[in-house]
């Protein structure tokens, strides 16, 4: 259960922590004991999943908890289409756990090393205007709160209301009940399209297909659009949908996903880091090298791709109805900045949800993400784009870089103060606080 304390880094390397102790509990009772002991010693407790947040969300000088041993399926309620997982379950384990039941998560982001609790706690999302992010799929949760007690909460409970996207500030989440759907196949079409058309019609485009996103290398005039359409599981093999193509052959996936998108792209990023003036040429090569392909596969295999080239990221959601103008302004701003940007922007969309601190709370949302190779200084680029997104009423992803403080966040999250009051009431001694929690909720 005890792990030797050592310096901790997040995935991108931008965040570092020096916890006084690291713990990997195997039972909820052990989590309770750790929280109680830390509270007695006036130490902070933060839980970390895969450390995939770019923000210092999990950073602590106190006890760093990891729930990798509290992982797996607890129960399946087929009638309710709800499944309960231990909170440390990694997203890449979920398809295997649900496959025997013919079930799947309705939507996902584009990578899967995250823990389920980490993904929920920061409002992780994928794309698809008929769908929400992870927090919108939560139907119940179990937490160990600051006094060491176990709380099982569901709709109607304030801890459920604010604790879903809670950044670990309301307690250690130990189990999550998620709504699920029947397992499904995705038919993917990936191709280059004129950037002007895609930018100008993005709100309409994002509603036409179940799941659609696009990548754009600044300075180029093409958008790499990925459209995914849902079919029943196994549709690829039945007669009526025989027209659906099969999965990407293993050799092709190796070339596209590993060699081009990771090895070659990683080498190009390293070259641009040393010689930034290469960026426009490299962007043209990168845009042309992205795969044009059509295939079908189980949903998880289509949603998720390997991401081995490390980067830092800032992402804001803006109202989907305003997306075409905001995207045009982002493009103008980037073009006139003269900054060499060697990583593509990623644009997605989701439906509105009712989770108080969600980036999609109450509005269909367009997500605009800016990336920077991990060895490059991300601050300059993000500082150029962030004002455009803030001016558009943007809400930053809780796990991705942003510079907003409590007041800036409260301006776009009407229930942030109510959430902060509940946080203070459930954790009066600040066991689960860290500087990021204070920045978000204020120091009530
Ligand atoms: C390569 C990459 C790709 C990404 N792709 C996407 C994407 O497609 N869509 C998207 O929306 N985001 C994406 N993200 C962001 C990522 O999904 C979130 O930052 C997510 O929170 C990471 O999960 P994690 O398990 O690493 O959590 P961590 O970063 O370890 O923790 C995140 C927060 O959750 C809290 N937490 C973790 N576990 C618990 C627990 N058991 N109880 C209470 N609090 C807990 C932590 O204290 C912290 O505040 C990506 C990040 C990377 C690095």
Structural description of this entry:
The protein has helices spanning 28-40, 94-98, 116-121, 158-163, 195-200, 202-208, 250-274, 279-289, 299-303, 323-337, 378-391, 406-410, 416-426, 435-441; strands at 2-3, 8-9, 16-17, 21-23, 45-48, 63-66, 71-77, 82-87, 103-104, 138-144, 150-153, 172-179, 181-182, 184-194, 211-216, 222-232, 293-298, 311-319, 345-350, 365-373, 395-396. The chain is built from 14 helices and 21 strands. Strands 17-14-16-15-19-20-18-21 form an eight-stranded antiparallel beta sheet. Helices cover 31% and strands 25% of the residues. The radius of gyration is 21 Å and the shape is globular. With 444 residues, the protein is α+β, with helices and mostly antiparallel strands. Helix 7 runs antiparallel to helix 8 and helix 10 (323-337) packs antiparallel against helix 11. It has three domains: 2-65, Uridine Diphospho-n-acetylenolpyruvylglucosamine Reductase, domain 2; 68-182, Uridine Diphospho-n-acetylenolpyruvylglucosamine Reductase, domain 3 (2-Layer Sandwich); 185-396, Vanillyl-alcohol Oxidase, Chain A, domain 3 (3-Layer(aba) Sandwich), CATH 3.40.462.10. Bound molecules: flavin-adenine dinucleotide (FAD).
């Amino acid at each position: 259960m005890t792990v030797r304390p050592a310096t901790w880094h997040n995935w991108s390397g931008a965040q570092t922590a020096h916890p006084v102790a690291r713990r990997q509990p195997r039972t909820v009772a052990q989590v309770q004991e750790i929280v109680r002991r830390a509270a007695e010693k006036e130490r902070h407790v933060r839980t970390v999943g895969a450390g995939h947040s770019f923000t210092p969300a999990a950073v602590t000088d106190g006890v760093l908890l990891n729930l990798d041993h509290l992982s797996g399926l607890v129960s399946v309620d087929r009638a309710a289409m709800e499944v309960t997982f231990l909170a440390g379950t990694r997203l890449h384990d979920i398809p295997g756990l649900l496959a025997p039941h013919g079930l799947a998560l309705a939507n996902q982001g584009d990578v899967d090393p995250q823990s389920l609790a980490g993904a929920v706690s920061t409002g992780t999302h994928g794309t698809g205007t008929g769908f929400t992010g992870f927090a919108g799929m939560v139907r119940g949760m179990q937490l160990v709160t600051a006094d060491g007690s176990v709380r099982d909460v569901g709709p109607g409970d304030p801890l459920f209301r604010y604790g879903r996207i809670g950044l670990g500030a309301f307690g250690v989440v130990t189990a999550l009940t998620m709504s699920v759907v029947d397992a499904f196949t995705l038919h993917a079409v990936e191709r280059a399209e004129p950037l002007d058309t895609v930018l100008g019609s993005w709100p309409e485009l994002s509603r036409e297909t179940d799941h659609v996103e696009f990548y754009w290398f600044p300075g180029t005039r093409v958008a790499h659009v990925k459209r995914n359409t849902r079919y029943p599981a196994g549709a690829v093999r039945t007669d009526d949908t025989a027209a659906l193509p099969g999965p990407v052959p293993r050799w092709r996936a190796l070339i596209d996903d590993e060699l081009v998108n990771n090895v070659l792209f990683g080498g190009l990023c390293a070259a641009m880091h040393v010689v930034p003036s290469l960026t426009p040429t490299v962007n043209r090569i990168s845009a042309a090298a992205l795969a044009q392909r059509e295939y079908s596969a189980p949903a998880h295999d289509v949603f998720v791709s390997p991401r081995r080239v490390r980067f830092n990221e800032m992402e804001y959601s803006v109202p989907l109805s305003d997306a075409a103008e905001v995207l045009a302004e982002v493009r103008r701003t980037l073009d006139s900045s003269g900054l060499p940007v060697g990583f593509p922007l990623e644009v997605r969309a989701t439906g509105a949800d009712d989770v108080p601190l969600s980036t999609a709370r109450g509005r269909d949302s367009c997500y605009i993400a800016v990336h920077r190779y991990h060895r490059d200084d991300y601050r300059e680029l993000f500082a150029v784009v962030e004002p455009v997104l803030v001016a558009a009423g943007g809400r930053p992803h809780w796990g991705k870089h942003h510079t907003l403080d409590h007041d800036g966040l409260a301006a776009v999250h009407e229930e942030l103060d109510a959430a902060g009051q509940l946080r203070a009431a459930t954790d009066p001694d600040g066991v689960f606080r860290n500087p990021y929690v204070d920045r978000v909720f204020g120091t009530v």
